Amino acid sequence: MSIKLGDTAPDFNAESSLGTINFYDYLGDSWGILFSHPADYTPVCTTELGKTAHLKPEFDKRNTKVLALSVDGIENHKGWISDINETQNTEVEFPIIADENRKVSELYDFIHPNASATLTIRSLLIIDPNKKVRLIITYPASTGRNFTEILRVLDSLQLVDGYGIATPVDWQEGDDVIIPPAVSQEDAEKKFTKGVKVVKPYLRYTPQPDL
């Protein structure tokens, strides 16, 4: 199954390091991040899960729950979590799916046969509270993900949903945002009371509205 932006994220039941979970129940009304890992006890994945655990306060602030996955079993996960906690000086509190039968991996297209016929690639989805897929990023197994970028995209998506804006290249929290061309100049001046900077009729900026 190929999942694209705007699709409804498929629901599933799975065994995890925290017991049996239902994906939709786990997310509730939160945003969600589902990310796959090639295997337990691998160095790049160890650093990624450690970083994710360290970022828990940031995800909490953004009403976002994380859920990891690999095709190894529960006992492997538990042993690996102990290693992650030790080597990355953290506490992994989010579930790691034990997808031994590849059910979830196939549902989310996490196995790319030309990369590996059995192991999941390093893929990540951001899912909004309506269970719609809003971001898909896929990395090769050898390259660790940039979680600063993932937080940046979360901030952008939540601003987009809350205020009907867009974010420009290299946007960071606190930078000016873009007014979409579909919003008339008259409506823009009414809606964005902090000011409208017109560079071109189709390129207009306003200060970040939630600051």
TrEMBL record:
The family database entries (CDD domains) matched by this protein are listed as:
PRX_1cys
Domain Thioredoxin, first and last residues per copy: 3-159
InterPro entries recorded for this chain? AhpC/TSA, Peroxiredoxin_AhpC-typ, Peroxiredoxin_C, PRX_1cys, Thioredoxin-like_sf, Thioredoxin_domain
Sequence intervals crossing the membrane: none
Could you tell me the keywords of this UniProt record?
Answer: Antioxidant, Oxidoreductase, Peroxidase, Redox-active center
**Any Gene Ontology CC annotation:** cytosol
Q: Which GO terms describe its biological process?
A: cell redox homeostasis
SUPFAM superfamilies linked to this entry: Thioredoxin-like (SSF52833)
Positions of the catalytic residues: C45
Q: Name one Pfam family in it.
A: 1-cysPrx_C
Any keyword ATP-binding?
Answer: no
- MF terms in GO: peroxiredoxin activity
Q: Which family does it belong to?
A: Belongs to the peroxiredoxin family. Prx6 subfamily. Belongs to the peroxiredoxin family. AhpC/Prx1 subfamily.
Report the protein name in the record.
Alkyl hydroperoxide reductase subunit AhpC (Peroxiredoxin)
Species of the source: Epilithonimonas mollis
